[in-house]
């Protein structure tokens, strides 16, 4: 049986083969974004291998994860307040969005940047009551040639609705981490999320009230669990970090 053209390897990367120019662009985007990830849980993430080996031999890794990233370039170091594996997961979900994306909580705009690089077609809405520096974020959009489909909203996400936000198939919650605030975000935008759409929450782990809000929410709403909300405080050691991923039935 002849192989289809779609099964032919287009290029090889450090992570393995890719099968199209678009997939290679995604891998390059993800590597760029990872270079700006949160590094406090990583072991010497952008130091030369020889230095890493010597330091590890002499002092150990001090309970940090051995994970290498590239040197930050266009995006400042630690601009994206997520672990590298969380960045990749959010990128993947954003890439597959066909309807629209809404995030609550922007701060730097790191997750907004992830979604904008992953998907240049669907509307992307980002709500934050007090973002850090939207002008700087817009400058990054311009430099990376993305963001024309992004709607930056400064305001309340818990009780207020905005006419510009219609149906969405990805709802990313990363704003108020109190139980009430997180629950209100989910409740406020639930009706906008289409059936089969993804509800993704950051910092859902034991000791953070986001977990309490999610456990209360799933008692009252019809959801399918993709990534469990039951995570210990050592959330960085899970394959998808502190993410909880739910699907609306």
Can you lay out the helices and strands and say which pair or pack?
Elements: E1 11-13, E2 16-18, H1 21-34, H2 49-59, H3 84-95, E3 101-104, H4 110-118, E4 124-128, H5 134-144, E5 150-154, E6 168-173, H6 179-189, E7 193-201, H7 209-220, E8 223-227, E9 244-248
Parallel strand pairs: 3-4, 3-6, 4-5, 6-7
Antiparallel strand pairs: 1-2, 7-9, 8-9
Description:
This protein is of the alpha/beta class. The chain has a domain at 84-248: 3-Layer(aba) Sandwich (Rossmann fold). Helix content is 32%, strand content 18%. The chain has 7 helices and 9 strands; from the N terminus they run ββαααβαβαββαβαββ. It has helices at residues 21-34, 49-59, 84-95, 110-118, 134-144, 179-189, 209-220; strands at residues 11-13, 16-18, 101-104, 124-128, 150-154, 168-173, 193-201, 223-227, 244-248. The strands form 2 sheets. Strands 5-4-3-6-7-9-8 form a 7-stranded mixed beta sheet, with helices on both faces. A two-stranded antiparallel sheet has the order 1-2. A hairpin with a 2-residue loop joins strand 1 (11-13) and strand 2. Helix 1 runs antiparallel to helix 4 (110-118), helix 3 (84-95) crosses helix 4 (110-118) and helix 4 runs parallel beside helix 5 (134-144). The longest helix has 14 residues, at 21-34. It is globular, with a radius of gyration of 19 Å. 36% of the residues are buried.
Radius of gyration: 19 Å
The CA-CA distance between the termini, in Å, is 39 Å
> What letter string, H or E per element, gives the SSE order?
EEHHHEHEHEEHEHEE
Tell me the fraction of residues in β-strands, as a range: 15-25%
Which structural category fits the helices and strands?
alpha/beta
CATH class designation of the domain at 84-248: Alpha Beta
Number of strands: 9
Instruction: Give the number of helices.
Output: 7
In CATH, the homologous superfamily of the domain at 84-248 goes by the name Vaccinia Virus protein VP39
Q: Which CATH-level-2 architecture of the domain at 84-248?
A: 3-Layer(aba) Sandwich
CATH fold type of the domain at 84-248? Rossmann fold
Spans of 5+ residues with little confidence (pLDDT < 50)?
A: none
Q: Could you report the average pLDDT, rounded to the nearest whole number?
A: 94
What strand line-up does the widest sheet have? Answer: 5-4-3-6-7-9-8
Please summarize the sheet with the most strands: 7 strands, mixed
Question: What's the shape?
Answer: globular
The percent range for helix content is 25-40%
């Amino acid at each position: 049986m002849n192989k289809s053209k779609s099964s032919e390897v287009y290029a090889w990367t450090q992570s393995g083969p890719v099968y199209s120019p678009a997939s290679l662009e995604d891998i390059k985007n993800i590597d760029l974004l990872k270079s700006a990830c949160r590094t406090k849980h990583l072991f010497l993430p952008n130091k030369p291998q020889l230095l890493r080996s010597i330091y590890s031999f002499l002092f150990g890794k001090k309970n940090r994860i051995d994970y290498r990233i590239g040197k930050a370039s266009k995006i400042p170091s630690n601009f994206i307040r997520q672990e590298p594996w969380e960045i990749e997961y959010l990128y993947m979900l954003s890439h597959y969005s066909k309807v629209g994306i809404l995030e609550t909580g922007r701060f730097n705009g790191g997750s907004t940047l992830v979604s904008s690089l992953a998907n240049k077609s669907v509307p992307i809405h980002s709500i934050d009551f007090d973002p850090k520096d939207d002008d700087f974020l817009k400058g990054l959009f311009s430099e990376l040639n993305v963001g024309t489909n992004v709607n930056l909203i400064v305001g309340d996400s818990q009780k207020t609705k905005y006419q510009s936000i219609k149906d969405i198939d990805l709802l990313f919650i990363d704003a108020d981490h109190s139980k009430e605030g997180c629950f209100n975000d989910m409740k406020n935008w639930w009706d906008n999320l289409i059936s089969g759409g993804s509800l993704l929450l950051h910092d859902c782990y034991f000791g953070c009230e986001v977990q309490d809000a999610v456990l209360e929410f799933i008692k009252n709403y019809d959801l399918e669990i993709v990534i469990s909300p039951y995570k210990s405080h050592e959330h960085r050691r899970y394959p998808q970090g502190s993410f909880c991923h739910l699907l609306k039935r």
